[in-house]
Amino acid sequence: MIKVEFYNGINGLCGFEISGHADSADYGEDIICSAVSSAGLMTANTITEVIGLDADARTDDGYLRLMLLENAELAQDALKGLRLHLTELSRQYPENIKVIYRRCNNA
Question: Which of 19, 21, 20, 10 is nearest to 68 (CA)?
């Protein structure tokens, strides 16, 4: 199962963490994993490379984490879009994706 954690702070969303695999098809053919990975990477790249915010970003096989290190306000639209997209996917595939909400450490 893919676990998606969104972190909320005083000024809105401050990051996300995606871990695990959907296990809905063979490796390389799993469209649920592909959809989640693509959305997460696009959001992380938009925040760090397009908007230009400083963030702690980490990635590994089946793992992506992005925590903002500065002005979370500028990233809210991108983070809310990811939250909406992955929440809707979790409704379509409840056995493959779980969305969790947590507080930021600094909130």
Answer: 10
Within 10 A of 81 (CB to CB), how many other CB atoms are there? 14
pTM: 0.91
Instruction: Report phi then psi at 105, rounded to 5.
Output: -60, -30
Residues in CB range of 62: below 8 A, 6 or more apart: 19, 20, 21
CA distance 40 to 44: 6
User: What is the rounded CA–CA span in Å between residue 40 and residue 10?
Assistant: 22
Higher pLDDT, 71 or 35: 35
**Reported confidence tier of residue 81, pLDDT bands at 50, 70, 90:** very high
Nearest to 13 by CA among 65, 64, 77: 77
